Amino acid sequence: MPLLELKNITAGYGKNIILRDFNLQVERGQFVSLLGSSGCGKTTTLRLIAGFSEPNAGSIIFDGRDITHVPLHKRNFGFVFQSYALFPHMTVFDNVAFGLKMRKVSKEETKRRVMEMLALVDLNGFEKRYPREMSGGQRQRVALARAMVIRPDLMLFDEPLSNLDAKLRVKMRVEIRRIQQELGFTAIYVTHDQEECFAISDQVAIMNQGVIEQMDSPAHIFNGPKTEFIAHFVGFENFFDLTRQNGSLTTASGAVMAVASDRPGERFKACIRPEDVQIHPAEADVPNALPGEVLVTTFLGRNIQYNVRTPVGEFAVKAEQGNVYSIGSGVTLSLIANKIILIDSKE
Amino acid sequence: MLRDRMGKRVWLLLILPGALFVAVFMLIPLFSIVISTFFPENTFTLNNYGKLLESVYFQQVFGRSVRLSLLSTLLCALLGFPCAYYISRYSRHKGVMMALAVFPLFTSPVIRSFSWMVILGRKGIVNQFLVNVGLFSRPQSLLYNEFSMTVGFVQLFLPQMILSLLGVMDSIPEDLTEAAGSLGAPKLTAFLRIVFPLSVSGLVTGAVLVFTGCMTAYTTPQLLGATDTQVLSTMVYQYAMSLRDWVQASAVAMVMIVVTMLVSGVFNHLSKKINPLAT
Q1: Domain range enclosing A301
Q2: Which of B175, B180, B197 minimises the CB distance to A89?
Q3: A13 and chain B: CB distance < 8 Å anywhere?
Q4: Do B182 and A51 touch (CB under 8 A)?
Q5: For residue A196, with 0-12 CB atoms within 10 Å meaning exposed, 13-18 middle and 19 or more buried, which class applies?
Q6: Tell me, what's the pLDDT at A299?
Q7: How many separate domains does chain A show?
Q8: Residues near A246 by Cβ (< 8 Å), separated by ≥ 6?
Q9: CB contact, 8 Å: A89 with chain B?
Q10: How far is B199 from chain A (nearest CA, A)?
Q11: Is the pLDDT of residue B4 over 80?
C-alpha cells in the first residue's frame, strides 16, 4: 500500500483548472521528485499535499487515512520553502524550536533536539543568530532543520535550492539526499531543474499541463522516455517517423533502420540524442545511414555540434573534434541502433 | 574624490530649502517659546511651570488630554488592526478598500465634527435608535462630553493607523503564516506569534501618529467637547487668545511637546520588547 495517494484530484481557481483528475502514489521511504516547467501544476500538487489549499474534488490518502480536509497544522508534514520563510524576528534556535513549542515538547528535550538537528545540518554555534545575519545557504539549512525537527511523517520541498548559486546548489542537494537516507523519511521534491532531480530522486514524476506524463526511476526516464514531451525534456533533440514495412522499420525517405527495440506496433516516432549520432564523410558505408548537408556548426568546447539537413528533417549531431566538416559540405549520418528510442506515434 | 565632494555639495543643495524653511518658520519660533517660558523677565525661573503644575485645573486638563489620547489610540489600534489585516490578506479590491479607509481624510475635521454633532445630537439617529429600541426612555446627552470627543478622535485618526499597519503587513510574506501552520500552529497562534510581532513597527508608527494627533487636535475637542472638558490644545488657545497670557500658553505647549515625545518613546520601547528587530 502506498504511503501517500492522490486520487482523482481536481484543483484550481475559478475557471483556471490546474489539475484535472490527477493521480499520484508515493511509496514509504522514497524520494520522489515532481519535475516540470512553471505552470505545470507541480507546486499546486505540493501545496495540496501540505494542506495550504484544498482540492475541488478528489481525495488525498495518507497511511490509509483520508486527510483531504485535515487542516494543515494537524498533518505533521515538514515543508521547505523556496523563500526559506524563516521567521525574521526569531533567532535560529527559536525558528527551529517553533514546531516543538507547538507540540508542547519539554524545554530540555526541545533544546536537545534543536541542537541535534542544527548539528545535522552543520550549523553548530549559529543558534543565537537571526536569519538576516546568515547567507542564503545557511538560511536554507535552518529551514531544513526547522522542518525536520518535528519528525514529520512526510517532507515536502518546494524548489528549495533555486535561490542559491550553482555550486551551493550541488552541495546542498547532496546534503539533502544524505540526510534523507540517514533519517529515512519519505520526501516529495518539486523542481524545474532536471539535473538536480535526477541526482537525488528514487522516482521522478515528469508533469506537463497538470498531468504526470511519466513516473519512473531517473535511469528509466533517461533511457526510455515514453512520450515526445519527456524525450524533449531529457535531451532527445532528433525526432523522425518510422513505419513498419515488410517487417522492417523504414523512414519517410525509404531508408531502412535497424533498431534494437522490439516494441510492437506499426507507426512510431523515433528519437535519438545528438551525441548518439555519428557523422561521416559523404557516401560513407555505415549502418543506419542518412545522407545530409551541414547547415550550422557550433563550437561547444569538447564537442562540435553540427546541424545537418537530412531527407527526414534537421538533425543535431554532437561530434568529437577532429574531422571538421564545413558548412555546406555533404555528410553521412549514422544512427546507433540501440540508442534509437521508439515512441508510439500520436497520429 | 572630486565626485565625492560634488556629491556632498549636491546633497546640501537638495536639503537646504527645506531645512531653511523649517529653521525659520518652526525651530526659531519654537525656541523663542521655550526661552520665553524660562526667562519671562530676562532672569531664569521655573515659576511658570510651577504655577501650571500646581494648578488643579491644569492637572485635570492634562489628565483628560492624556487619557483621551491614550484611549483613542487604543481604540484606533483595536479597530484598525483587523481592518488592515483584512485589506492586506484577503481583500480582492485592495485599491478600493484603501481608498475607502483613507476617504475620511478628504473632508476637513470641521465638517466631520459637525457631522458628529448631527449624528450624536438629541434628535440624531443614535438617540432616536436608542429610544425606539427601548434602551432609554429619553434621549441621552451624547454630545459635548468625553464620549463625543473620543468618537471624533477615533474617526479622525483611524485612517492613519490603518495606513501605517497596511504598509508593514503588506511586507510580511504569506509563506511565513503557512510555515507556522505546517509546523503545527493553528491560525490564531500563527497570527499571534508571527503576524502580530512583525506588525508591531507599523502599530507603533500608527500609535505615535494617532496619539500626537489627538494631543494636538484643536477643532475636534473644541466642537465636540464643552468648557468643562477642555484639553491641552484648547487650553493653549484659551490662554493665548482669551487671557492674552502668551507665556503661560507657551508653557502648556511645552508640556504637550514633552508628553508627546515621552509617550512615543514608551511606544517604541514596548515594540522592541515584542519584536527586538523592529525599527
Answers
A1: 239-344
A2: B197
A3: no
A4: yes
A5: buried
A6: 87
A7: 2
A8: none
A9: yes
A10: 11
A11: no
pTM equals 0.82
Q: Which fold has domain B46-110+154-274?
A: MetI-like fold (1.10.3720)
Q: Mind telling me how many Å the CA of B157 is from chain A's nearest CA?
A: 29
Domain boundary among A204, A230, A256: A230
A313 and A168 in a common domain: no
Q: What is the share, in percent, of chain B residues with pLDDT greater than 70?
A: 96
Residues A249 and A121 in one domain: no
| Chain segment A94-122, per-residue pLDDT in tens | 999 999 999 999 999 999 999 999 999 99
Q: Give the chain A residue whose CA is nearest to the CA of B182.
A: A73
Query: Last residue of some domain: A196, A230, A264?
Result: A230
User: What residues form DSSP beta bridges with A189?
Assistant: A33, A157
Q: Confirm or reject contact between A218 and chain B (CB < 8 A).
A: no
Q: What is the pLDDT of residues A215-242, one digit of tens each?
A: 999 999 998 899 998 998 888 999 999 9
What's the CATH code of the domain at A224? Answer: 3.40.50.300
CB contact under 8 A, B185 and A52: no
CB contact under 8 A, B176 and A85: yes
